């Protein structure tokens, strides 16, 4: 099977490309950051460049597409919503149009748990409707638009797609803006770890290896035109995460402050998100808990150090 991964030179995209390669499939990457040094063949291009994407699909003829290209940093979206919409929304339309024109059997789309902001608060499963009141953030709006485009192309062109709505992701190669990465880097430098707000916001941090497995399984026939919620196995507050990292480094300080650039971000505290559908239909269950994931990151970095500079081992 030929698998094209958009955004395949990025953090998550690289792990997805590797999972398909390990599964014995031929992989190609399209990413603005792609270079000849990347582990997989590809092309440096933006998904919003319609002509380039159409030509690439027509010449390479992928069987399946993993669509991860996009602006994933919510603060970057807030700072430049026009560019973000061009990449996230126009880019998705470009990929779907090229896929429909060349007979792609499935497009698996990187969604986001942020769409829960436009849903009822009490509980969230995949059948909950989007509220007319909207999302409250251009990043959320772009993620909703991606899902609606997938539905449109399924209805109008018969293009099968699968949307994966996932919680915050961490793991090897994660970019510095992710909270797990930020906490680990700050702790390695001796602290303090900065928690925005009061630290009570909950997250179910998902390890990138578990997410890559979900992308791989999402090509199954049962996943056609489905949406799946994906979360990590542990739900904890930002403050709890900060103190876990602090403890691993011998007790570096944790501080709290407000950050105006984070206005309108996902409010997740009261939501009970169901991942039953992914378990039952795809046989997918997250396997890497947050403690194991943090220890793996520390091991890869050579171990933690306490506030006195002594190495902290086996913690």
TrEMBL record:
<comment type="similarity">
    <text>Belongs to the NAD(P)-dependent epimerase/dehydratase family.</text>
</comment>
<protein>
    <submittedName>
        <fullName>NAD-dependent epimerase/dehydratase family protein</fullName>
    </submittedName>
</protein>
<dbReference type="Pfam" id="PF01370">
    <property type="entry name" value="Epimerase"/>
</dbReference>
<feature type="domain" description="NAD-dependent epimerase/dehydratase">
    <location>
        <begin position="4"/>
        <end position="229"/>
    </location>
</feature>
<dbReference type="InterPro" id="IPR036291">
    <property type="entry name" value="NAD(P)-bd_dom_sf"/>
</dbReference>
<dbReference type="InterPro" id="IPR001509">
    <property type="entry name" value="Epimerase_deHydtase"/>
</dbReference>
């Amino acid at each position: 099977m030929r698998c094209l991964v958009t955004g395949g030179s990025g953090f998550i995209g690289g792990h997805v490309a590797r999972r398909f390669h390990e599964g014995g499939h031929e992989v190609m990457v399209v990413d603005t950051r792609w270079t000849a040094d990347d582990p997989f063949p590809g092309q440096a291009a933006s998904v919003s460049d319609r002509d380039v994407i159409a030509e690439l699909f027509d010449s390479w003829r992928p069987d399946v597409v993993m669509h991860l290209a996009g602006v994933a940093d919510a603060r970057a979206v807030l700072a430049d919503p026009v560019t973000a919409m061009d990449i996230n929304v126009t880019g998705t339309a470009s990929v779907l149009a090229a896929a429909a024109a060349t007979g792609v059997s499935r497009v698996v789309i990187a969604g986001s748990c942020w769409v829960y902001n436009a849903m009822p608060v009490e509980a969230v499963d995949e059948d909950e409707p989007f509220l007319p009141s909207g999302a409250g953030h251009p990043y959320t709006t772009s993620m909703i638009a991606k899902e609606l485009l997938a539905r449109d192309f399924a209805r109008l062109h018969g293009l099968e797609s699968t949307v994966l709505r996932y919680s915050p992701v961490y793991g090897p190669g994660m970019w510095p803006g992710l909270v797990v990465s930020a906490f680990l880097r700050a702790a390695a430098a001796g602290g303090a770890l900065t928690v925005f707000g009061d630290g009570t916001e909950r997250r179910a941090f998902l390890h990138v290896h578990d997410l890559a497995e979900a992308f791989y399984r999402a090509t199954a026939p049962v996943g056609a035109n489905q949406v799946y919620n994906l979360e990590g196995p542990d739900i904890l507050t930002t403050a709890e995460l900060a103190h876990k990292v602090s403890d691993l480094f011998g007790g570096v300080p944790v501080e709290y402050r407000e950050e105006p650039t984070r206005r309108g971000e996902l409010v997740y505290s009261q939501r009970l998100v169901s991942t039953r559908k992914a378990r039952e239909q795809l046989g997918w269950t997250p396997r890497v808990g947050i403690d194991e994931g943090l220890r793996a990151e520390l091991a890869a970095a050579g171990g933690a150090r306490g506030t006195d500079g002594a190495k902290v081992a086996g913690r």
